[in-house]
Design a protein that fits this description.
The strands form two sheets. The chain has a five-stranded mixed beta sheet with strand order 2-4-5-7-6, with helices on one face. The chain has 217 residues and is α+β, with helices and mostly antiparallel strands. Helices cover 52% and strands 21% of the residues.
Length: 217
């Protein structure tokens, strides 16, 4: 069984890996800007700096909501917050169209964390662009979530699939699979579960997360 310390370390490794590229681009851009004298090239440097700063900010907002205590310490989180961070990541990924089908104003925090991490997995799978469909609804005391990635090529590591179903071996847990393992544990603790189906054209992931007793009614 994975210890909380090991899981936290792997999640931190994932965060650092994802932040390295945009932060490195910021550093390189600043160096170029300091040396460049041509006005047109300086303008391009500033444009690249702005782009890298936006990507860095978007990723930090995502990690804060997906892994941290963003949204406060209550049981519910505004769905708009989740939409904004997912839409920003989809925009940064380029050639990814986001289709959003959630009418609820708030959802339980565990459901939000699961949805965000499934969305990140879907984005990672769309290496040549495509569409990402996200839906969620309250039904009979549960939050039912569906995230679908559809594109010309789907890149999905089956190890992540096993992690989503809490079937991963101890030696297979890495920074790539840590987030999937985390939400599988979270779903299980809530009395719910995750599932996925992979075809040549699409990756479909689903979750059922029971609502906390205080939110039913």
């Amino acid at each position: 069984m994975t210890s909380p310390t090991d899981l936290a370390s792997l999640l931190c490794s994932r965060l650092c890996h994802d932040m390295l590229s945009p932060v490195g681009a910021l550093s390189n851009g600043l160096e170029l800007l300091a040396e460049e004298q041509d006005p047109e090239m300086r303008a391009k440097c500033v444009e690249l700096l702005e782009q890298s700063a936006k990507i860095s900010t978007d990723k930090l907002k995502f990690f804060r909501l997906a892994f941290g205590a963003a949204g406060g310490f209550g049981e519910a989180v505004p769905v708009e917050e989740a939409h904004d961070v997912i839409a920003a990541l989809a925009s940064d990924a380029k050639e990814v169209t986001l289709n959003w089908a959630i009418t609820e104003k708030t959802l339980p925090k565990p459901a939000i964390k699961v949805m965000l991490n499934l969305a990140q997995i879907a984005l990672d799978a769309l290496i040549r662009g495509g569409t990402m469909d996200i839906g969620a609804e309250l039904r009979e005391g549960n939050v039912e979530i569906v995230v679908r990635a559809n594109g010309a090529r789907i890149a999905f590591d089956e190890t992540i699939g096993r992690a989503l179903q809490n079937e991963i071996g101890a030696g297979e847990l890495t920074s790539r699979t840590a987030a999937a393992h985390m939400i599988a544990m979270l779903a299980e603790e809530c009395g719910g579960g995750l599932q996925y189906k992979l075809t040549d054209e699409a990756l479909v992931m689903g979750a059922v997360i029971p609502q906390p007793a205080g939110m039913i009614g």
